[in-house]
Design a protein that fits this description.
Shape: globular
Order of helices and strands: EEHHHHHHHHHHHHHH
Number of helices: 14
Strand content: under 5%
Structural class: mainly alpha
Distance between the termini: 62 Å
Number of strands: 2
Length: 360
């Protein structure tokens, strides 16, 4: 038997990736696991999103061919500059950004609460934004309409903070958090309805349109701040994609792995609320996108956790497609996109409730 020399180099074998996963090594000491089906779904969703955005730029009361849309976007002078560059493209971009923010927010909140019925609009973020906007209009604190998005963001954050404080009992219990959010949302909704009954007709109609959620009349002024928030949130979202994995386990197991469960939950909830409040400030409270997009993305990818990237792409696709249907279904009447998402999301919520009741 020949002894092994101390200087003989040892060969390190790289363990094989689990089934369905691919190991990526962008740097020598950095390796990443990529779920192959999630990657395929992300590419498919990107193609679908591009297709529906092109369709939204072409279709409407005035039809614009894809060739004319391309020429107009390139800056060539033509008869459709106002329709494409001023009316449709800003609205389409805003819809994609709002949908992505709501999809991300819903995935974060549902993972923290471990409840597919939870979403930012359920825990009172939308109601807080609406109540803050109502009070600002009623008291005359905000004179400029351009300041209303900031007011709605502040209201959404304040409502979520109140829910968190009231739900805290030596730690954050997900079920208590959701039920407290529902209660706070009902109370804030009553405040809004009280104002609507006592306000003048013109102010009430304007507020009702905002409360329904609509992309009509909105554009780069609202899309710019939301895009900045999403860019600034990218590092936090990269961290969140890793922090979500242990939260899929029970709290005791996650704590045994060294995860500070309450702190992680608080950080993820805060990130989700900021995204949802900013999206609400940009387009008004658009319901059910944050509820349905993460669950649809999970069913498409078949992953144990809610996938953040695919949730964002699903939310963007759903909202752009819903807005396209809303403004072309009954021309020249334009349906607020929030009404259409509620019409589709309501039955989906009932299906989730029925499915949960059938499970043991």
């Amino acid at each position: 038997m020949t002894p092994t020399s101390p200087t003989t180099p040892t060969t390190r074998t790289t363990p094989a990736a689990p089934p369905g996963l691919t190991v990526l090594r962008p740097l020598p000491r950095v390796s990443l696991l990529l779920h192959r089906r999630s990657g395929y779904v992300a590419v498919a969703l990107l193609l679908l999103l591009a297709a529906v955005m092109l369709a939204a730029a072409c279709l409407g009361q005035t039809y614009v061919s894809p060739t004319e849309v391309w020429r107009t976007l390139r800056g060539e002078a033509g008869p459709y500059d106002l329709v494409v560059n001023e009316l449709r493209v800003p609205r389409i971009v805003l819809g994609a950004l709002v949908g992505a923010a709501l999809g991300l927010s819903g995935a974060l909140v549902q993972t923290v609460t471990r409840n597919p019925l939870a979403s930012p609009d359920v825990i009172g973020v939308g109601h807080g934004a609406a109540a803050a906007t109502v009070l600002a209009l009623a008291t005359g604190v905000v004179a400029s309409p351009g300041a209303l998005p900031a007011v709605s963001v502040a209201g959404g954050l304040a409502a979520a903070g109140l829910v968190y404080v009231l739900a805290w009992r030596g730690g954050m219990q997900p079920n208590r958090f959701v039920l407290t959010g529902v209660g706070i949302g009902v109370a804030l909704s009553a405040v809004v309805q009280l104002y609507l009954t006592d306000s003048e007709l013109e102010a009430a109609e304007q507020l009702k349109l905002w409360l329904t959620g609509s992309l009509n009349g909105r554009g780069w002024e609202q899309a710019g701040p939301l895009a900045v928030v999403l860019l600034l949130a990218l590092p936090a979202l990269v961290w969140a994609s890793r922090a979500l994995r242990p939260l899929g386990l029970d709290a005791d197991t996650a704590a045994a792995l060294g995860v500070r469960v309450d702190r992680v939950r608080l950080a993820l909830t805060l990130l989700g609320v900021v995204l949802a409040a900013t999206a609400t400030g940009a387009a008004g409270p658009i319901g059910f996108v944050a509820l349905t997009a993460p669950q649809l993305a999970r069913r498409l990818t078949r992953t144990p956790q809610l996938p953040l990237l695919n949730s964002a792409l699903t939310g963007a696709f759903v909202l752009v497609a819903a807005d396209l249907v809303a403004r072309t279904l009954l021309p020249p009447l334009e349906i607020p996109v929030g009404a259409l998402t509620a019409l589709v999301g309501g039955p989906y919520l009932l299906w989730l409730l029925g499915r949960g009741r059938r499970q043991p």
